[in-house]
Specification:
Order of helices and strands: HHEEEHEEEHHHHE
Mean pLDDT: 86
Number of helices: 7
Helix content: 25-40%
CATH architecture: 2-Layer Sandwich
Structural class: alpha+beta
Radius of gyration: 19 Å
Distance between the termini: 30 Å
Strand order of the largest sheet: 4-5-6-7
Length: 228
């Protein structure tokens, strides 16, 4: 199931050794995919449905498929899936549209300045246009494409920061491996902050920057309209 869905980005693919390593590692908490049941032609069928988060070896909470996608963005484990932009998510007059994620690269950088630790996340995503419900947009100019890209960038940035903030404020569990990144990049600093990392993690500032590019947009003079 995990192999079949990896391009949908609905659950993390975690090997047993990765889970065991995370249980014993510093600066990161273990996660597993969630399996649920759904009705298919009157029969109960299993399906992947989000992420289970552990603190040490105890299950603490689970989050859904949508939040899992943004978690995977942070972890640089996005292999595909959809980036959906709704009217309620952006301030422009454009309608709803969907982008198919072709590739992604995420960089997480710890920054220590004036005695304060923070993190910068850079996300670079290449997509193709899937569906759109605004027939006023004809893609006859690059400016129309850039308008959609900016809206998608805003939505991606806001959702990544939202998921991180929700984890920080709700639990003292570093599922993103921020502490591990400090340990790898700044080992001397990690030695000092390791005993207090659970508390520090809850308040550390994280800033995300997203760059979304829509590929082959020039071929989409007649985009697929939602409802077709």
């Amino acid at each position: 199931m995990l192999d079949d869905q990896k391009k949908l980005s609905k659950s993390p693919k975690v090997e047993i050794y990765q889970f065991i390593n995370a249980l014993g590692d510093e600066g990161i908490s273990a996660v597993l995919p969630v399996v649920g049941l759904t009705q298919n032609s009157g029969e109960a069928t299993s399906q992947l449905a989000g992420t289970a988060v552990f603190k040490q070896d105890k299950l603490q909470y689970m989050f859904d498929e949508d939040d899992t996608k943004y978690y995977l963005f942070v972890m640089d484990k996005i292999k595909g899936g959809l980036l959906v932009v709704n009217k309620t998510q952006n301030s422009s007059n454009a309608g709803n549209f969907t982008l198919d994620i072709d590739s992604n690269k995420t960089y997480v950088k710890p920054v220590y300045s004036k005695g304060k630790l923070s993190f910068e996340i850079s996300i670079k995503t290449k997509t193709t246009l899937g569906e759109i419900d605004d027939n006023k947009i004809k893609f006859t100019s690059q400016s129309e494409i850039e308008k959609l890209e900016k809206q998608a960038q805003t939505v991606l940035k806001q959702n990544v920061e939202r998921v991180i903030k929700a984890v920080q404020s709700g639990y003292d569990i570093d599922i993103f491996g921020f502490g591990l990144k400090v340990k790898q990049d700044m080992p001397e600093l990690w030695k000092k902050i390791k005993p207090d990392w659970d508390d520090l993690f809850k308040n550390v500032q994280v800033k995300a920057n997203a760059e979304v590019r829509i590929k082959h947009a020039g071929l989409l003079s007649n985009p697929i309209m939602m409802g077709d």
